[in-house]
Protein 1
Amino acid sequence: MIKVCKFGGTSMADGTNIRRVAEIFNSDPARRYLVVSAPGKRFGGDAKITDLLYETHRSVAERGETGVFSKVRERFCGIVRELGISLDIEGLLSETEESILRERSEEFTASRGEYLIGRITAEFLGIPFVDARDCVRFGEDGKLDGETTYALCSAALKGKKRAVISGFYGADAEGRVHTFSRGGSDVSGAIVARAVGADLYENWTDVSGFLACDPRIVDSPAHIDVLSYRELRELSYMGANVLHSESIFPVREANIPILIKNTFRPSDEGTRIVPAAGYIPPARPVTGIAGKKNFAVIFIEKSLMNSEIGFARRILSVLEERGVSFEHMPSGIDTISFVIDEAELQEGMLAEIEREICKRVCPDQCKTLTDISLIAVVGHGMSKNVGTSARLFDAIARAGVNVRMIDQGSSELNIIVGVDNENYERTLRAVYDEFFR
Ligand code: ASP
């Protein structure tokens, strides 16, 4: 039995927490590989090491000096002191500072949090450290080169009974450090699990797993015991951010289950994420609800659009030429809509896109809605329960909310509803109450 454990930023935040991590890791001989995040916040208002490193990079780029790196130095020296290890942390930090000034790369600088805490944790546990720069590879397109990565990782870990591996980054073919997006150590953990053929990927964080809805909006939402990979993907993509939304890909291909656990309440059961095959969905139709604000919807209507060959392609080329990706594309016989994350759009771009679409496909109508929130209602159980959408829309109507857009995924696994931003919280509560209270 091999377990790969990834510990998040809060778990690594200070010496006391790292001792806790070590205790968990050492308490089960199946826990063989430990993937670390950079130290996170110790208390509200504290800084995450990764944020300080991004700031360090900005000072290097703008003023040629490392600025807040002194705070990074203080944090790591404090951790080493608390752990009472003999690592020459001052020397390591000076070397790191020099290489930050030399490399002048944002990704290299950002990655140093995971590198340094990896070195410290390995020293504390008395086991080898494996630098992700040597075994996680990105292709020219900036995407993970899975095949090379799994081969390099398994070679690096072969013969090592236990090891610490730095999360969040890897390198391109030239050896330049490249990072995942924020929270990417979750992906690193999944990669290591896949590379060593783990039986379980344990993801240790500061909550006891997934909740059926955002606890900042809904009072004490239900705990989710089991989720399928696909449900997880839908929920985490839509903002349930316990786990990086890309972390399922490596483990899903190898059917390795993920277990979300709480470092600070290790006896809590957590949430288990499993392949759809063999997964028995709960009796209730909905497993979880998640949502995000700030989308734009471009709505296009044209009679007989279905018989116009290349219609969608011409619209898509307008988006493609501007480097804009879309999230969803709900369509009817004579209508098609594109849902775009507003963060993707520069000032004035939406109006320009609308003009260009009108020019290229001469629609009967083209209009744009902005400040839309999307709410995803997710659950394998939906396909087997008659009347789920009736209950959903009835609940939203009873809350007095106007639905601006509907998209049912072809898998019958989710229904996505668009409402005005101002109705977001109200809608989430109404939908949650309908399916969970
Ligand atoms: N340290 C990185 C971040 O703060 C990656 C991670 O923690 O997963 O985003």
Protein 2
Amino acid sequence: MGDLHPDLARVLISKDAIEKRVKEMAKQIRGDFKDTQRLYIVGILKGAFIFLADLTRELSELSMPHVVDFMALSSYGKSTESGAVRILMDLREPIENQHVLIVEDIVDTGHTLSYLYHILEGRKPASLHTCALVRKQRERLNVPLDYIGFDIPDVWVVGYGLDFADQFRTLPYVAELKREAYTR
Ligand code: 5GP
């Protein structure tokens, strides 16, 4: 691994820790869905794409039948935390009677996941579950979160799919961005 970028404060979750936890999560999901014929996995772009790729390959190793589709969402105004979210790209297929698992990168206030959960719930899936790589430790909406990789402090994190202004997304670890990097 090269030197840490000067805008990064520290590595919060190492590549090895992520790899181990993703394997554990896949096992847990496999066990919970052992009687499910097919899982319909909904990845949330862009942030979840690396986590989703690793998780689904682990699920394949465990012979969990699944398909993958994507949605892209955008907040109207992050700073206001109004909770207003819009769909930039929707699923290609109806999910009625499907066993759906939402895969998110990060849950902060929970607005995004809560919005998405209610939209998808309205489409009458057979079941609806949620999974996120990281969750910030702070006040949030009461969203059902079934699978969670790591709890992290309330700092801005990047890497493993997570970005800051589209930078740092493909780092193999999750790192804390220095406060001065996003306040300047
Ligand atoms: P929420 O709606 O839960 O407050 O926020 C969720 C969205 O905000 C995430 O899907 C992500 O796009 C963004 N977000 C929140 N915290 C972070 C963070 O620490 N790093 C990055 N890269 N995105 C974040």
